[in-house]
Amino acid sequence: MAITYASRPSRASVLIALAFLAAPVLAAALVLFAASIPDLSLLLIAGAAAGTAGLFLIVRPSLSLHGWFVLLVMPPALQVEPFHTLATNGACLAALASWLLADGLRRDPMAWNGTLLLLGICILWASISLLWAPDLVEGRRALIAWTMSFLLLFLLLQRTRSLEGIDALMLTLGLAGWLLILAGLFTVTLTSYDFTTRLQVLGINENMYGILLIVGLPGAMWPVMRASGGRRAVLMALSVVYLLLTLAFVALSGSRGSALSLLIVLFLFLFSRSVRPWGIAGLGVLVALLVVAPFVLDVVLHRVGEEEGSELGGRAPLWAASLDFIRDHPWTGGGVGNGPFALHAYMAAATGTFNHRIDLPSHQPFLEIAVDTGLFGLVLYVLMLGSAVWTFATSRRRWLGLGAPPGYYPVVIGVAVGFVVSWFKAGGMKHHPTLILLLALMLIPAHLTAARGGGPKAPRQHRAGGGTSSV
Length: 471
Prior knowledge:
- The structure is a single chain.
- The protein is an all-alpha fold.
- It is built from 20 helices and 2 strands.
- The protein has helices spanning 11-36, 40-58, 61-72, 83-104, 114-128, 136-159, 163-190, 206-215, 217-225, 229-253, 256-269, 276-292, 298-306, 316-328, 339-350, 365-394, 396-401, 408-423, 433-453, 458-465; strands at residues 111-113, 468-470.
- The protein has a two-stranded antiparallel sheet.
- Helix 4 (83-104) crosses helix 6, helix 5 (114-128) packs antiparallel against helix 6 and helix 15 crosses helix 16 (365-394).
- The longest helix has 30 residues, at 365-394.
- It is globular, with a radius of gyration of 23 Å.
- It is found in: Membrane.
């Protein structure tokens, strides 16, 4: 979706909108902070410590923003409440404040595009759906999650306007991926893990662990593209080790979706000269595992062979119930955050298998959106995703014109396609931080061009190609 230069939002209106969106996050953080520490003296000490940490993060924009992303995808076993929620909300506010102080109050161009606009309209429609949502608490909780997603995407685009900014983002992504790899090694080697059972690492859902490792692939591969000589050889070896362990851990997790996603990623890598070595290495490692250590693949092959939960993993009844609900509530849905609860009655009419559950997500992002906010919300959501894909596709020529590594595009394409294969059958992934990260990776090239192009003609160039503009 293109935004003309004349119709772009003013800086004041964007700042006011961001302040409005951040208000629920700030309120939730303050309430949790005060409720978790009833003693006044401890409250003051904790407040002083939080304030100091906040100021430290504010003057380090990349640290606060990337730290916020890491907190959002932190494994459940490491989330100590209420400190994790406080830290997450605090990092969000620090990242927003650092942008306001560094760029927002100056005359620097602001990254804006059709994807952000449509995501903002999605949130506005979700807010309106609170008028008919029966449970306002669940509605507000879902609305805050949508708001956090918008802020994360917005700030990622503002802070990643150069190749150096991409380096910093990929470094964070790579470190997060390697930490998950090390956690997997610890679980396999230093615990009583049984190779005949599904691997679970730090409380992460077995299906989600593989997705996180796949999303971490660009962080392991990007440094190789930016290096040369002996350093490139060392980084290439490390990236192949990451790929080898990812293959092993995805197999041990028993996730059929993640296994299929990873195979698709490796297959797509073969079609691009710049990333073909990783595709060949990955498939070579897979063959080696089949020959040398076939027991590593036993769990996932067993699940594929027995087709546990049917070919759709038991999701067919949920999808059928979701379609029935959408037919009865095509325009309004159940209200943001209330879809999983409204769906229970439709499932109970068909089967008693899920009677122990009061919330039943559709386990399909598009259906979840439609159940929550109706067909209008679904159309906005599809247009938002389509806008990101269009911007990505039309900005490739300008990206290469800057002399940026050509491998960026095939890596993002491969990982995005592989991600979608698993995402399509996942529950609660319609605004997950990993999806927001992939949207950012698609939109960054267009705004990197805007940042480097300069001059008064930059907005016109972006309007013609990628649907982006500088505000």
